[in-house]
Design a protein that fits this description.
Layout: H1 3-17, E1 21-27, H2 34-45, E2 50-58, H3 60-95, H4 104-109, H5 118-126, H6 132-135, H7 142-150, H8 153-158, E3 163-170, E4 176-180, H9 186-192, E5 202-204, E6 207-211, H10 221-226, E7 231-235, H11 249-280, E8 293-297, H12 300-303, H13 316-336, H14 349-353
Parallel strand pairs: 1-2, 1-7, 2-3, 7-8
Antiparallel strand pairs: 3-4, 3-6, 5-6
Length: 354
């Protein structure tokens, strides 16, 4: 065997060793806590063995999804990593201009919250008695400027490199609306992230939308029906369970938000598990129906200590701390659970969701 043939053989063996496994991503929303998902994505993008088929996302997850997808199209994996970092840096810089900042007591407590921030307390009080149509008549949203600077939506509309499914809640019908690649626009992302106490409902095609977390956080069904791979990796932001009962008003409100924003996901997972049992028992004869394998990346032990107010805290140190945690959790998932992709679920669905 000559040297050229030996080089070709080595390349072929290397290609065989690198088994690329496609996965679908399901990215939850959670404001600034979305920096955790940024860290997860950053670590997954380092692995050539991981490919993304589709991404279903809501709220902060929707932002991560469009930034990541645009970066992938423009500059591959490194382009996506750079785009995500630049986006979160811009979010943090924009937040410096906001009066809503952690107070000295918040920083001293180390809980990353805004519970004693005068501007946050004033905003919280005002939103109980006045709507965003009164408090924010010009409907200013700083996220719009950052999106327009960082995301090429025309490119996303043309490309099918990564299938995108962004969820929003139709205000009038109460139904979920899932926007796909050909519909991508800044307004779609704003609709998916629209907090109804702070921003006016977003109008798209004569319909009005609020945050998608109310009806799909995130929606799994588009990944099942519209994607080829059967593996879904859910990146959790909101803790599902808590060991203690909330006692203070802030704790109670935080727990209500967590339960509300997890409810749609848990309902879908129950349906998925029911379908999986039918397929396993041979009671589904349609060849298009297949088992769905679920995986999860989460940091509940960290997120349980973060209150709802911290979702509005875009301090760079806080964001990078969550990013670092996300990378560590993704690294552990790659080590322990990625080998199960394409074979079986890596979580106990019954124990976690049912």
């Amino acid at each position: 065997m000559n040297r050229a043939e030996s080089s070709v053989s080595r390349k072929r063996r290397s290609a065989r060793r690198l088994e690329v496994k496609p996965v679908n991503l399901a990215l939850q929303g959670g404001g600034a806590h979305g920096a955790f998902a940024w860290g997860v994505l950053d670590r997954l993008l380092e692995e050539d063995a991981v490919a993304f088929d589709g991404i279903s996302a809501t709220s902060a997850g929707a932002v991560n999804a469009v930034v990541c997808a645009c970066g992938l199209i423009k500059g591959g994996r490194e382009g996506a990593r750079q785009a995500l970092r630049e986006f979160w840096q811009q979010i943090s810089r924009a937040a410096l201009l906001s009066p809503i900042q952690p107070s000295f007591l918040d920083r001293l407590a180390g809980n990353r919250g805004l519970e004693t921030s005068p501007a946050f307390l004033l905003l919280h009080m005002l939103t109980q008695v006045a709507s965003p149509y009164e408090l924010n008549p010009f409907n200013y949203n700083p996220l719009l400027t950052v999106l327009e600077q960082t995301v090429d939506f025309e490119l996303l509309r043309r490309s099918r490199q990564v299938k995108l499914f962004l969820s929003a809640t139709n205000v009038r019908s109460g139904k979920i609306r899932v926007f796909e690649n050909h519909e991508m626009s800044p307004e779609v992302v704003l609709a998916s992230t629209c907090l109804p106490f702070i921003f006016q409902a977003v109008e798209i095609d004569e319909e009005y939308y609020w945050d998608g977390g109310y009806m799909g956080n995130p929606a799994l069904f588009p990944l099942i029906y519209r994607c080829e791979t059967s593996d879904i990796v859910v990146v959790h932001i909101n803790p599902i369970s808590r060991p203690t009962v909330p006692r203070t008003a802030a704790e109670i409100l935080n727990r209500i938000n967590e339960i509300s924003f997890n409810s749609s996901l848990m309902r879908e997972v129950r349906a998925v598990e029911f379908l999986n049992r039918l397929v396993e028992e041979g009671r589904v004869l349609t060849p298009d129906i297949r088992q769905v394998r679920l995986h999860a990346v989460e940091a509940d032990e960290v997120m349980r200590h973060l209150g709802a107010a911290s979702k509005l805290n875009a301090d760079w140190n806080f964001l990078t701390d969550l990013y670092t945690i996300g990378r560590k959790k993704a690294d552990a998932w790659l080590r322990d659970d990625f080998p199960k992709v394409g074979i079986k679920s890596s979580i106990d669905i019954q124990d976690r969701y049912l």
